[in-house]
């Protein structure tokens, strides 16, 4: 915080420019969709010249891949943070499902992920770039989930947490259509019931065992 | 079947042309996405002149709305038919989940629905047309589910069946990325376990009660 712009190193300034370009790509994807996302638009949103942008990212594919990685890494960190904030004694599985919806999947920046997921279906080049990002992320998610959760019935906690996001992604698709907050609440509650039959926070599992 | 083309009524020919245009729109959406779907392309795929097409559908919005209704009505009929085909004694809930995936959500024509759902997010005019179609459909689905299923725990069977499609829609988004059939199988199995704890076919519920 005390570091003035003048005293920033080249590396710090470069990281900051990349972060700004990732944020701008996320905004652009959410607002204009994948087809409407261009390097020119992203540079404009980031407030950088096209040349400055091309110093960091040479193509739309580079930009979108970096933005996806940045966004998904952030979502994973947020997921872990959310889980840690929920206190024993509360209905923590319900709290986790609600937070995952409210703070992650239903937040506007998450629309960018939806756009990328859909674009990948008909764009093999993009898929080739996004696939390794996703594979790495799902390994990190599995590792994080292993430190947070156990299951009552021997099912895989990483699978159950992954399915939570799968369901919420499907819900976010439908929520765009129905705009029915009561239906969303019912789905979140029903899933929390079903998940809570199986999933427990690791400290509760230790207390019970 | 015995009706020759010559003996078809005007109404029959018109219905057939509309059906062909809906099928062509579905193909076009699945292959070229919403942005790449144009009335010209649809007329070409349907093998109709642009004039003939415009006699039935005046705009892309009309075409896409009609195609969505046609596709979703077909999916509902298919869902009911699939449920009726599963015989007591089998693990019918698992069979239902697998069929819903294999025969509906994962089938290529379902990509058209995904395209429409995503397009709706940033297109208020399209949403205004698709919303009533969806509302009518979810009432029909609820009515159909009421004749097919009960729950063991007082939860709403229509909600659970709806959530099945919500989860599978999310899964179809991810399946485009991961191309990991083993993961898909694990999700289907885990959901069948969770759903089977609560949902029963109505004839089994009657036998048990």
Task: Write a structural description.
- The structure is a homodimer of 209-residue chains.
- The first copy, chain A, is mainly alpha-helical.
- Chain A is globular, with a radius of gyration of 19 Å.
- In chain A, 76% of the residues lie in helices and 3% in strands.
- Chain A has helices at residues 10-32, 39-46, 50-56, 60-85, 92-105, 111-121, 124-148, 157-178, 181-196, 202-208; strands spanning 149-151, 199-201.
- The first copy, chain A, has a single domain (5-208), classed as Tetracycline Repressor, domain 2, CATH 1.10.357.10.
- The relative contact order of chain A is 0.11.
- The N and C termini of chain A lie far apart (46 Å).
- The A-B interface holds A 31-33, 35, 111, 114-115, 117-118, 120-122, 127, 130-131, 134-135, 155-156, 159-160, 162-163, 165-171, 173-174, 176-179, 186-187, 190-191, 193-194, 197-198 and B 31-33, 35, 111, 114-115, 117-118, 120-122, 127, 130-131, 134-135, 155-156, 159-160, 162-163, 165-171, 173-174, 176-179, 186-187, 190-191, 193-194, 197-198.
- Chains A, B: It comes from Aerophototrophica crusticola.
Reading off the top of the CATH hierarchy, the class of chain A is best stated as: Mainly Alpha
Estimate nothing, just give the exact number of structural domains of chain A: 1
How do the strands of the widest beta sheet of chain A line up side by side? 1-2
Count of helical regions of chain A: 10
What multimeric state do the chains show?
A: homodimer
Low-confidence regions of chain A: none
Provide a concise account of the structure shown.
By secondary structure, chain A is mainly α. The first copy, chain A, contains 10 helices and 2 strands, in the order αααααααβααβα. Chain A has a single domain, classed as Tetracycline Repressor, domain 2.
